[in-house]
What does this fold into?
Amino acid sequence: MSRDLISGLFWLAIAIFFSIEGLIHLKLGAVRQPGPGFFPFWGGVVLGLLSLVLLLNSLKNRDRLSLSGLKSSKFLLATGAILAYLLLLETLGFVTITFLFLFLLLRLEYKGWVFSAVSALGGAVSSYALFQLWLKTQLPAGPFGF
Amino acid sequence: MSMEIFQGLLYGFQVVLQPINLFYCFIGVFIGTLVGVLPGLGPAAAIALLLPSTFAASPVSAIIMLAGIYYGAMYGGSTTSILVNIPGEAASVVTCLDGHAMARQGRAGPALGISAFGSFIAGTLSVIVLTFLAPSLAKVALSFGPPEYFSLMVLGLTILTYFARESMVKALMMAAVGLLCGSVGVDSISGRYRFTFGIQTLMDGLGLVPVIMGLFGISEVLLNLERGKQKQEIFATPAKGLFPTREDWRRSTLPIMRGSVLGFFLGVLPGAGAIIASFVSYAVEKKASKYPERFGTGVIEGVAGPEAANNAAAGGAFIPLLTLGIPANAVMAILLGALMIHGLQPGPLLMKQAPDVFWGIITSMYIGNAMLLVLNLPLIPMWARLLRVPYAILFPFILLFCLIGSYSVTNNVGDGIVMWVFGVLGYLMKKFDYEAAPLILAMVIGPMMEEALRQSLILSAGSFTIFVARPISAGFILAAALLLILPLITRRREVAKAWTSVPQESAE
It folds into this structure.
């Protein structure tokens, strides 16, 4: 399976979804008075046709599936950390979750407990000072009030 | 020079020279240079991050600062390209070629110097042209109806896909995906919800800030993490010797001039922009040179031209925004959002309705460019030291900034999730050779395009001939059609060659 084949199928599915949704659930309307489904439907059709072109091309000149160096552990850890940050942000509060987040990621790539802990604490406090106190961004407070 | 422009300029300077606005301008260009220097954090993400912090400021101050981040980044990006051979910012990708080669020969100083001076000259020239062109274009734009807007946006998307790095089919696909993404949320004409799946966050549509931060910020970090530790050679800059020699100047003058003109016009075209301008300038200089074979080995023309071009493009990009209300690229899209948040409607009427903003932005760029020139050269040693901070320490903070930025626009965790989704999508897109730029531009102008299309069809009672029956619209459509047909004949060899001759890192 080539990369274009996989991704082409993915986009084809997206295209079919938008077209059907535009055609059936939203209304296409008349050409003289286009409805809410008109644009998504035709957008989906265009995407679908282009996907087909890509698929046909990929069958002709097949490149091998080489996803260079997928080190899945780091990828999963980083994406997991971002998701966890978002899900816990409003329960734990900005400073606490930011400290944990920075600490985990600094440890992931860099050695040294003390260094990671100190920089994570410094990062959490100074970003709080910068965004909450100076720039007046509304950051969520946790059980401790920050 | 018409009286009107002169008065406008005078008024603009009165606005900008207020201490508070000078302060915001300085902060803007300083942060811009910083994010330009730092690889993996571009101007789009930075403007998105700082947008919420401008809510308290006056519209003029806010826009002056946000605009400063944009052209400031064009200055900063070259520093990283020259010293580390990694583009700090996508528009500085080509600068790596000859800029870094010059650094290897111990000529980092003149390379940095000529990019700062070249940027200043081009930036200033493009603001001058902007000053004279914007008011008259705004008047022309008043005669644009929905068909003209629609055709122009079609042309913009076509230009962007024409210059695509990989296959044009894939770029067109991304434009289509962007249009579909843009249709999420409330339909502006019928008021119906589309593709929201009952999710609160999607009711207002996909947020531009989280999508940009995901596609450009998060995905970039994920890719860099995977590449792992690379030994990077950072060239120490001599404290003196930043000034190019007389010979350097003689060789750079024409490239800077050509880069300025080219950059400005490519900047004005929606869809082209600073990145493409720098590539085209490099190609032009190579063609014009008496010794094209020496390009890539540290020729100063290869630094001067592209660096001038990307700055001129940054100025030119304000034209469609200020006169038509159409963003030429992702950064302009966020600025458009910023103007609207501050209660302003960019477009042909902006000059009349908010002259302080219109002239304030333009004149702030004269001041900002001068600040950058003064600021940049002495600060280069500091930026060089910053570049020594290992990525392992840098990346958690880049991620944190993205998280804060996506959250703080609407104080909604849902937007953070949107960013996460687009971060993973952007990562996969890179793996599968898709580009994010057409998606972003299409997503932004999608709702405008749809409205223009539907209004045009209502106007014409359902006849598509309206797009070719009106001369201006027909011109846009014809140009777009040519760009679509051209690659079938020429196979876009030149464009592809320009892209492949450049290091692959952080292309956005």
